[in-house]
Amino acid sequence: MGSPTLVTARAPGRVVLIGDHTDYTGGLVCPMAIDRWTTASGVRGGSGLSLASADEPEPLDVGLPVTRPDAITPTWGRYAAGVAAELGVVEGLQGTVSTTIPIGAGLSSSAALELAVALALGFDGTPRELARLCQRAENTATGLPSGILDQLTSACGVDGHALVMDCTTLDIEPLPVPDHAVVQVLFVTQRRLVGSPYADRVAQCAAAEAVIGPLRTADIGTLNAIEDAMLSRRARHVITENRRVRDFAGALRAGDLNDAGALMLEGHESLRVDYETSTAAMDEAVRSLSALRGVYGARMTGGGFGGCVVALTEPGTQIPNAWVVRPTAGASRA
Ligand code: GLA
Questions:
Q1: Is residue 65 situated within a structural domain?
Q2: Are residues 267 and 195 part of one domain?
């Protein structure tokens, strides 16, 4: 018997600067990985996956190989079990997970858990492959038809940079965050995407695409062909949001933070009115933040129905209860 293999891996959370609800139609997104992480560490070996969580009362204890991750309790363990199932691992891990990402706040604590566990279990492949595997794990383990945004950001983060990502090709352009730009996050309310109208939005996009073709390339003029007014609004959000990601990237490249902030506010309106993923509390937070001196713009961020608001500000801008997040590198094994 050799000595036990000790492993530690960590994966960052993410915040979306602009480009929400575009990933599952293969569109454009502009997130950044943030300096908050989930860490998985332990001893490899044995025939089970046993993880204690610093943030949850019940540990995960499951035999390998995992066949039904969606039936695992406690439910937080489904993300880890889903990863083990996708990897098909038979060599286990006894360890712990802990996180500095607020859980259920729309900052991708789930994706970070998936990536950290995958790396701790010995995943061997490219960051894009890691993201794909973890997305599949989440889809299977939770039934949520989520896109690739969270996992791809956590896998491919670049220190000091936001990312412009194409969710069809998985091409990524790292975009330096200018020195005079500060990103701040304000927690508004807890939320769960499983059981929320998220899956309805995915289905509504598919219904709109059945009429006008891929939203990724659709022209705004084609919206007239969609008879159902609600579906037409959903499609309008996606088409305009893809355009906003391009414009936002241009504004950041040019260092024009006023433009970037205005696009964030426009994006929030689109999520509020056309996509209906905001809440009254998030709308209020965006309204009050955008009225503050030093704030270029603000918007809800992530899947919505609760969660956080993100603001782009001048250095030194104090927002009560918000915290500054810095763009950071992607997931890694120690
Ligand atoms: C959640 C999903 C992502 C993405 C966002 C909205 O975070 O996991 O795939 O759809 O919502 O942009």
A1: yes
A2: yes
pLDDT in tens, 19-43: 999 999 999 999 999 999 999 999 9
Establish if 296 belongs to a structural domain: yes
Q: Is 24 in the pocket of ligand 1 (CB under 6 A)?
A: yes
Active site annotation includes 150? yes
How many Å from the N-terminal Cα to the C-terminal Cα in the chain? 24
Which of 150, 166, 228, 274 is labelled catalytic? 150
Domain that holds residue 70: 5-14+29-158
Stated pTM of the model: 0.97
Evaluate whether 312 touches 296 at the Cβ level (below 8 Å): yes
pLDDT > 70? residue 186: yes
Order of strands, sheet of 295-301, starting from the edge strand that comes earlier in the sequence: 295-301, 307-313, 182-189, 323-325
94 and 184 fall within a common domain: no
Q: How far is the CA of 178 from the centre of ligand 1 (A)?
A: 25
Of all protein residues, whose CA lies closest to atom 12 belonging to ligand 1?
20
Query: What's the CA-to-centroid distance between 51 and ligand 1, angstroms?
Result: 26
**How far away, in angstroms, is 245 Cα from ligand 1 center?**
15
Number of domains in the chain: 2
Assess whether 66 and 96 both reside in one domain.
yes
Return the bridge partners of 5, or none: 44
